[in-house]
Amino acid sequence: MDEIKLEKMKKLRALKLEPYPYSFNQTHHAQEIEEHFAKLEGKKVSVAGRIVGMREMGKLYFIDLLDGSGKIQLIVKSDDIDSKSQETLKLTDTGDIVGVEGKVAKSKRGATSIEVATMQILAKSLRFLPEKFHGLTDVETRYRKRYLDLITNPEVRTIFKNRARVIKYLRDFLDERNYLEVDTPILQAIYGGAAAKPFVTHHNYLDSDLYLRIANELYLKRIIIGGVERVYEFAKDFRNEAVDSNHNPEFTQLEFYQAYADYNDFMKMVEEMLSGLVKEINGSHEIEYQGKKINFKPPFKRILLVDEIKKKSGIDISTMDDKSALKIAKDEKLEIPVKNAYHVADALFDKYVQPELIDPTFVVDFPAYMCPLTKDKRGNPKLSERFEMFIAGKEVGNCYSELTDPVEQRAKFAEQEKERKKGDDEAPPIDEDFLEAVEHGMPPLAGIGLGIDRIVMILSNVPSLKEVILFPTVKPEKK
Fold first, then answer.
1. Partner of 46 for a Cys bridge, out of 27, 110, 311, 362, CB 3.0 to 4.6 A?
2. Can you give the pTM of this predicted structure?
3. All structural domains of the chain
4. Are 424 and 340 in contact (CB under 8 A)?
5. How far is it, in rounded angstroms, from Cα 410 to Cα 260?
6. Longest CA span, the chain
7. Which residues fall within 8 angstroms of residue 22, CB to CB, at 6 or more apart?
């Protein structure tokens, strides 16, 4: 808190000029005035926002006001405003939120402006903004104090407006196809639906541990079992994993499921969804991401996971077991904590295939041991009907022809339980309640999870996931 600013706040109160009033009659925004200047020139308007720049030239002041839509210039002639506004002007600083009334005009240099008649403090700032010429550039400070980032770096606002547009487009896409939006529990007694280490908490009243969900899959399937044929959820999921440019412990995922469909149906649907999304947001099917052109015009490329790894490394992951995986991990110098078949296959893909997947690509048909919730590939039980969607070398989606046989599902859960006991802390426990639900009969269905943060990251052409999450997880600030 700045002492000079604090004194100004006290002086305002002494003059009976309330520095934190209840409301203000805001009639227009900066962008609206700029776009409709011809109709508004000479008209009286009321605008409100934060002062991000002030220049004094004798009795003439030029003030840059930032509101929710953008920036506009205020022109204040101190002799032409009333006495209350004059006192307010004297006690106003950069960073204060103000409301003004005045006429729309052009400055001598042609800038759309408001010639101020009255001025009122709406929130007296007691701290200074970052230095105006350099803005807020320290990355950790930008993420930790996102409010300052939003004030000083206008392009950041654009990212989050586009994020909202992405979510709206996807929601409308599914609503138009008769999907039902639902909510499922974040606190779960048994976590599952993915391979990940969870966060654990304790419920005092029930005296039991609960987990923050790693995925909402198993609950959405319960809803399908209940007779709702198409469901989706924009879910906050939580995974106790590393924090880097592609991972945040808290992230947003869209999962949707459709009865009587399979992964082939969803490949077509995802193609239509993502190509339409990019056209809507970008105006064309081609975008640039970190210096590389990416084309979203259908059809998307399809590659077979097993064939691609074998072609690049000479290793056939479809025949790999935990014993052979241990030797391969050593020979390939794979730095992974758990060296079983699942994790080694995943690491080989990361090493040999993933970095080259720039244009949207479906990576299709995974080894069955990597897919505990997926139906076997028709005609080849070594594989499962699963695809992952990659863009710019990043996984953005994961889809299955879902396993619906409760006996087979129980057996696959039992295999995961063995891996847990051998030390794989990413393998989820057996969910008996889910198995009971499946035993009542689950129809054929396809399901997919799409990573919203990564999709927005790619469309925004930013290198880190933290740029598209308003309040990403960061290291605690050292006091």
1. 27
2. 0.92
3. 3-129 (2.40.50.140), 152-300+359-468 (3.30.930.10)
4. yes
5. 22
6. 86
7. none
Task: Look at the chain and count its residues.
Answer: 479
User: What is the residue type of 228?
Assistant: V
Bridge partner list, 237: 251
Per-residue pLDDT tens digits of the chain, which is 479 residues long: 899 999 999 999 999 999 999 999 999 999 999 999 999 999 999 999 999 999 999 999 999 999 999 999 999 999 999 999 999 999 999 999 999 999 999 999 999 999 999 999 999 999 998 875 455 667 888 899 999 999 988 899 999 999 999 999 999 999 999 999 999 999 999 999 998 999 999 999 999 999 999 999 999 999 999 999 999 999 999 999 989 999 999 999 999 999 999 999 999 999 999 999 999 999 999 999 999 999 999 999 999 999 999 999 999 999 999 999 999 999 999 999 888 999 999 999 999 999 999 999 999 999 999 999 999 999 999 999 999 999 999 999 999 999 999 999 999 999 988 888 888 888 889 999 999 999 999 999 999 999 999 999 999 999 999 999 999 998 887 76
